[in-house]
Amino acid sequence: MRMRPTMSWTPTADLPPGTTNLEPVADVLSTGGVLVLSGAGISTESGIPDYRGQGGSLSRHTPMTYQDFTASAQARRRYWARSHLGWRTFGRARPNAGHRAVAAFAQHGLLSGVITQNVDGLHQAAGTESVVELHGNLAQVVCLSCGAFSPRRELARRLEEANAGFEPVATGINPDGDADLTDEQVGDFRVLPCTVCGGILKPDVVFFGETVPPTRVEHCRKLVDEATSLLVLGSSLTVMSGLRFVRQAAQAGKPVLIINRDPTRGDRHAVTRVKLPLGTALTTVAGRLGIPVDDEATPQVRE
């Protein structure tokens, strides 16, 4: 029997309470060497909802799993129809104050690195360099047969041509760029094959039920080893892909700090959890450290 991947987590009553005190965050950033781990919550102020927060997409939407995507042509049709529509909105999202604050911290030498669970590319668009995209990036497509990579914009153009007149109205957009559509709206949407070998195309992101490439995990583990502390931004830490780094840092005696409005699966490993909106929290910390945060992100091309 196929097991469904972990998508939800229920907080227990013994978790430490959250706080609005930002002093511990400012203190660790002031000493430098901080590794950032960001999740969907940092992109909500850019118009991309998270999975599990208040009004999160899991309340109305079950993400595509790797097992369903690879096993069913109909599942791939449903995914690509919804993702094609969602990409139009997703691709227009711009970095918010939280992304810009992280970029400012990095530019002032306070961060040892950034790991993101997001697939939206907004950290890079805000000016942060050397971001490890734990779950990949929607801007790239990979063939499951020959392994060829291609830009998402190229596939979007091909899908537009192959599905002329496909203009349904979505009821929502999700953190993975998937739009909410009914099966009737999906209709007979045409899915296109790899131009190199005719194989199955998939966005170059880690689906639920799929494993993060081992070399990427090891790179992130090394970043945790080299950091002085770990700052988690906008992640519920429900899935092990991010939680393992929190556990690693805590076991090594490195301070773990979390900014997330709701309780997280990593709270018991943290010295503090700040329950404030990320844009407000991070710009406030930047102000206390005398670090200016740009009002607008440096224009960069997002593909």
Shape: elongated
Order of helix and strand elements from N to C terminus: HEHHHEHEEEHHEHEHEEH
Mean pLDDT: 89
Low-confidence runs of at least 5 consecutive residues: 1-5, 55-60, 297-303
Number of helices: 10
SSE class? alpha/beta
What Rg is obtained from the alpha carbons, in whole angstroms?
A: 19 Å
Strand content: 5-15%
Main sheet overview: 6 strands, parallel
Count of DSSP strands: 9
Helix content: 25-40%
With strands numbered from the N-terminus, the spatial order across the biggest sheet is 3-2-1-7-8-9
Distance between the termini: 39 Å
Descriptive account of the structure:
Mean pLDDT is 89; it is low at 1-5, 55-60 and 297-303. 45% of the residues are buried. Helix 4 (97-107) runs parallel beside helix 10 (278-288). The strands form 2 sheets. This protein has a 6-stranded parallel sheet, with helices on both faces. Strands 5-4-6 form a 3-stranded antiparallel sheet. The protein is of the alpha/beta class and 303 residues long. The protein has helices at 23-31, 66-71, 73-90, 97-107, 122-125, 152-162, 183-186, 214-226, 240-251, 278-288; strands at 34-38, 111-116, 131-133, 136-143, 149-151, 201-205, 229-233, 256-259, 272-274. It is built from 10 helices and 9 strands. It starts with 22 loop residues before the first helix and ends in a 15-residue tail after the last helix.
Task: Give a quick rundown of the structure.
Helix content is 33%, strand content 14%. The protein has 10 helices and 9 strands. A hairpin with a 5-residue loop joins strand 4 and strand 5 (149-151).
